[in-house]
Write a structure and sequence with these properties.
The protein has 341 residues and is α+β, with helices and mostly antiparallel strands. It has three domains: 2-167, Uridine Diphospho-n-acetylenolpyruvylglucosamine Reductase, domain 3, CATH 3.30.465.10; 176-284, 2-Layer Sandwich (Enolase-like, domain 1), CATH 3.30.390; 311-341, no CATH class. Helix content is 30%, strand content 25%. The strands form five sheets. The protein has a five-stranded antiparallel sheet with strand order 4-5-10-6-7. The chain has a four-stranded antiparallel sheet with strand order 11-12-13-14, sandwiched between helices. The radius of gyration is 21 Å and the shape is globular. Bound molecules: flavin-adenine dinucleotide. The site of flavin-adenine dinucleotide has 32 residues, from strand 2, helix 2, helix 7, helix 8 and strand 10.
Amino acid sequence: MTYHRPHNIQDACSLAARPGARIVAGGTDLMVRVEKGIEEPRLWVDISHLPLHDIRHEAEHQVLEVGALCTMALCATHTQVLQHAPLLAQAAVVVGAPGIRNRATIGGNLANASPAADVSCALMALNAELVIVSEKGRRTLPIQEFFLSPGRSALAHGELLAAVRIPLHRPEHTVRTLSHWFKAGNRRAQVISMVAVAARTHLDADDRVLASAIAVASVAPRPLRLSHVEAMLLDAQLTPDVIARAAAAAAAEITPISDVRASAEYRRHLTSIFTQWHLEDVEQGSAPRAGRMAPPEPPAPVAMDATGEGPWELRINGRAVSVRAPGSRRLLDVLREDLHL
Ligand SMILES: Cc1cc2nc3c(=O)[nH]c(=O)nc-3n(C[C@H](O)[C@H](O)[C@H](O)COP(=O)(O)OP(=O)(O)OC[C@H]3O[C@@H](n4cnc5c(N)ncnc54)[C@H](O)[C@@H]3O)c2cc1C
């Protein structure tokens, strides 16, 4: 095994083009696969030291550019992201847990091409454009063309995702824009979604829909846009009847599978409910209402002693839980294997 840590993009591209090369950024997806023996890269290209960590608002182009190496933690708190692309921050803040968010990158979330990837779903609703570089040069790709199937993206061997460009222009006559992020899992942190919905709607002065973008994760082999629902909503006023029809159409537009996380029927139900909640909250002009999707509360600190056996007093899904396990055991293994969550 060979390991390289290039400091410029040109070197990274020529290393990534070599046979057997594997790019690693935060390693939060790749290392799981390596640990499970699914992959054994021969040539590691660690891109973490490339200059792709910036978030830049280009006022003249009305674009927010996010470097591929920006972490979830950065995107969740960055002023420019919160101001111009709050959906991205809302999705980033629920990825994994703090340790994961400090390492997991935007580029890795996209390149991993998981149908359940939270940030990829938010970027679908934001109509992001991806900047891809290689030895051959630079190309851009609309995000809608990026995901091919689970684990497969439009990136060719040797190509590196350099940045995500989020267009900020709003349709003419926009008076209000509201966006909401909903994620359902069987707990509130460290969880792969059963369904996640990222939605953004622009309204005019008469409260008519000028454009609506609704993206869904975990209901198909790749993140999807509900284009039929979006078309239905064009020029409509969000009356209870319109909202009910759009919510029903959302369930009809997807063909999810049943798996260990949720049944197909429950996924359709969640997609419908989240679409309804988004449109109701847009109509009311509000952030998600109480009891719907509140941002996660900061977890209470737990004193851990790696040599101890517990019991560890945790709060999970609002309930106090006492767990006995070696302090060196990973929280995720305790949640999944000991508590069956
Ligand atoms: C415990 C745990 C919890 C998690 N929870 C969530 C969650 O709630 N929501 C969620 O969406 N994800 C979650 N994840 C998945 C993961 O954290 C993200 O997908 C992460 O964003 C991947 O980024 P990374 O930098 O770690 O990628 P890496 O693991 O370094 O790479 C992932 C893949 O992308 C490729 N790659 C990485 N960067 C680039 C690039 N710039 N150009 C080209 N290819 C590249 C690599 O070759 C590899 O194939 C979780 C993971 C773990 C381990």
